[in-house]
Amino acid sequence: MRDTPTPWFVVLPDRALPPVLLARLRRHACRVVDHPSGLPWLLGCWPEEELVHARAGRTALAVAGTTSLTPTELTVRLKGVRTAADAGSVLRDAPGSFHVIASADGDGWVRGTASGARRVFWTTVEGLSTGVTLAADRARTLAWLTGAEVDTAQLAARLAVPYLPHPLAGAAMWRGVHALAPGHALHLEPDGSRTTAWWRPPPAELTVPQGAAALRDALRDAVAVRVRPGQVLGADLSGGMDSSSLCFLAAEAGARLVTVTMQWTGPGNEDAEYAAYAARRLPGAAARNLVFPSQDLPPYFTGLAGHHDAADEPWAAVAERAQQHHLTRVLRDHGARLRLTGHGGDHLLVPPTPYVHALLRRRPLLALRHVAGFRAGNRWPLGATARMLLDRRPYAHWLAAAGDRLRDPTRHWSLPEEWGARPWLPPWAARQAVELLGDLLTSEAAKARPLAEDRGRHGWVHQSQEAGRLARFVQDSTTASGVPAQSPFCDDAVLTACLSVQPHLAHDPWSYKALLSAAMEGVVPDRLLRRTTKDHCNEEWHAGLRLHRRELAGWAEESHLVAAGVAEEGALRQVLHSPGLLDGNGAALDNTLWAEAWLRDLAAHPTPAHLDPSHREEHPLERTEPTERTEPTAR
Question: What is the distance between the alpha carbons of residues 484 and 339, in angstroms, rounded to a whole number?
């Protein structure tokens, strides 16, 4: 089965561009949409249904991604657009996950999603007289176009665990290529470019019953926009609350479901039992539940010796790529052309525990009760808990302090978070990596603003946007195999519905996903809504490491991370030769392997696969004419 090309586009400003730049883009693009002025606006390759656009006079509007909007509906909404920035308001209520791109009177405007599932990147190139800003949905496209080099500081940052804080997370990996923050828009104007925020977190005022109604509507719309009644739809079904909710909503919308259940060998795992229970109770057309025991799947880390198209940054595909390719092939054989995944549910539905910091100042007795519950469940040390509650440092100070403790040996996984989890680097990170990441944190601290003034809200938005960032890579990697995996929980309407609920009501130490449980009452069987357990695949992960020790040892001998100066050769060789000796550093090894694989893939495939000229040969360059609304003649 030949890989399906990943859709891509570049947004050009409404001005004359260097002919060499345009010629290079045209050689790889198979579609072009013009500005109302007649100059090129959007160049790239995408399925016809992936981009809807309309034009009225000197104004044009495009929506790229998952949407139910038709050209006619978009034309109606275009009536509300007077300036390019108006595009943000006329499409706020449209369900789905998509980019919005506008052109009006010579100005351009582009944004992704608030969740980060659709990203925008930009760079500045030399123009005919002044610098020209270009935007794209993929950082690699711009890096290839400009010949940008990998930013070693960003590479060092990707070794950090447990995750990177805002705004380092999701930053572009190339010098001169910039990532637009989720919830922000890029203005492309005749005299330059600027960014503005088009989205803010909603007030957290709702109770669980109030929020549940909004979440139910948002999730129902998010699923329905991806369902074609009567068509086969693939879906993950673990028997957990997230995946079960999506499956029942998809069945309600008329999908013929083929569900996928992974059966891991860990003691106490229950997914197969709960998934079978859910499959028997799905309404409408009969669903087929495919169960995959782990011994029937390619082991973890299969394919380390091969090279693949690199994503915009290192991510978790290294361990699971062969397994996911196998599942995708089976789903395609069963007729599925799209797959739903419950990814993002944990991030959006469960606010992080720092919400107790603000709660203490509003309702101290309730906050202390929650803190006691979290201390008991997570074994928070008393001293660390008290310091977290009394800490009044602003975000910038916390971020700067994190850069001073990257080698702190006192890592306690059960410490309560303050503004977030403090990043640290593994023992095999080189001194240069520590210095580079420390400088990055210090530099960002001087200008960074939290995502919300309340540290609990900040953390909730950040972890939700992290879910969106990963959802993008999941979709891209599975698109190449022919069955894109989409994450409805990462749609903006779902994000807004979750963030509208008071965090101490959405998450407390004695309940599990209270918001989703209330939202799906009457839709999903009660037994599934009461489930509080999650399966794990630790045995399979360690077995995969043992099985592929030889390939890992080969990586140690010619490590690209060592060559880049961010890993120490001897320490890295030791951990890759004997991964079974890891002491609680599994996440650190994962991050290191992802970064190493990413560098190897970049070296093997310097031109991104989505820019493969053969795709253009299959789909010759065509100019797409938008639906145009004819303005009435003035009297």
Answer: 6
